[in-house]
Amino acid sequence: MHVLCVRLECRDLGTLLLDLTVDSSSAPLLQFRQVTLEVEGRRFLDGAELRVDAGESVIVAGTPGSGKSFVLRLLLGLPGIGDAQVVLRGEVIVAGQSVFELGGNDLQVLRRRIGFVMQEGGLIENMDIRRNVTLPIQYHFRDMLSDGSLADRRCDQLLERFDISHLGSSGLRPVSLDHEQKIYVALARALVMDPFLLLLDDPMIGLSPDSAQRLCHHAFDSTSLFTDRLPGETTESLTHLLTTADLGGYLEHGDRFVLLDDGHLIDVGDRTAVETSDDPRLARVLKRDPIEVGGHG
After folding, report:
1. What percent of the chain has pLDDT over 90?
2. Taking a C-beta distance cutoff of 8 angstroms, is the pair 94, 113 a contact?
3. CA distance linking residue 187 with residue 29, whole number of Å
4. Which residues, in sequence order, are CB contacts of 275 under 8 Å at separation 6+?
5. What is the three-state SS of 213-249?
6. Which of 27, 44, 116, 279 is deepest in the core (most CB within 10 A)?
């Protein structure tokens, strides 16, 4: 039996808010229960069901515009984009908590242990690379840490792992980086808090096949670099949930593959199930190399 303990503290209250134990032999780490999502009158999810166990790497594939990105956003408690009109039904569960029943403080506590890599990186343009990477620690723990040494150490370790150490000492800002460098910096920022869950929104878009596979090697490496812990931080198996319009580039990295089609999340199975399937819907998202598309998934 594998037991995942997620311990989270709130910076504002300085008290333990969530101490969750998820027995992965019975309860999933992530779950959608009959989730229906409409944004500006368009239905993206229609009674969708999803289960992801602790430590799994699950790939969700769908054609461009099918709503894949909303799957990730819902896990962060973000059902829409901006001021869009949203209708949401069903239940989204993360580590035993119903996300949309959490209060504001509890939701922020949960989010800080979830890493998120957006398609274009989502870096803050007026901050240099080091500040971008260490921002989550500085924001959530500025009242608990005596100085920035822990954040700097973690930044250095991650940049070194990705072979981009030079970006952390030059004062460079995101505008000076190429697309691949931006994605690596975004990945470093997502991992700096040693999350229990890593969400990735089609990170291979725009990369060459070799660059894409190198990125995947780093993104799906679950080995933690960190020996010093943040307040309230525990060590758990890293769970991956990635969305894409092209399953082909992720076949060797996913434990399980899910198809988003017509608002439904269809569990396809493992790599063998994908490669032996004759489902034409699956063929549309099995191109076997990175594609260069954009949009909101």
Report:
1. 70
2. no
3. 22
4. 251
5. HHHHHHHCCCCCCCCCCCCCCCCCCCEEEEEECCHHH
6. 44
Strands (E), the chain: 3-9, 16-23, 30-39, 42-52, 57-61, 86-94, 97-98, 114-117, 197-201, 239-244, 256-261, 264-269
pTM above 0.85, yes or no: yes
Give the CATH superfamily of 3-283. P-loop containing nucleotide triphosphate hydrolases (3.40.50.300)
Q: Strand runs (DSSP E) across 29-186, as ranges?
A: 30-39, 42-52, 57-61, 86-94, 97-98, 114-117
pLDDT of 13 reads 34
User: For residue 211, what are the contacts with CB-CB under 8 A and spacing of at least 6?
Assistant: 180
Q: Residues 6 or more apart from 163 whose CB is under 8 A from it? A: none
14 touches 59 (CB < 8 A)? no
Average pLDDT of the chain? 87
1-25 burial code (b ≥16 CB/10 A, e <16):
eeebebbbbbbeeeeebbebebebe
R_g over Cα of the chain: 19
Res. 283 pLDDT band, cuts 50 70 90: very high
Write out the two tokens for 83: 């001021």
Confidence of residue 247 (pLDDT cuts 50, 70, 90): very high
Q: Which residues contact 170 (CB under 8 A, 6 or more apart)?
A: 129
Sorted by where each begins, the domain ranges of the chain are 3-283
Closest CA to 159 of 132, 140, 136: 132
Q: How many other C-beta atoms can be found within 10 angstroms of the C-beta atom of residue 272?
A: 9
pLDDT confidence of residue 72 = 98
* pLDDT band with cut points at 50, 70 and 90 for residue 224: confident
High-pLDDT (> 70) share of the chain, %: 84
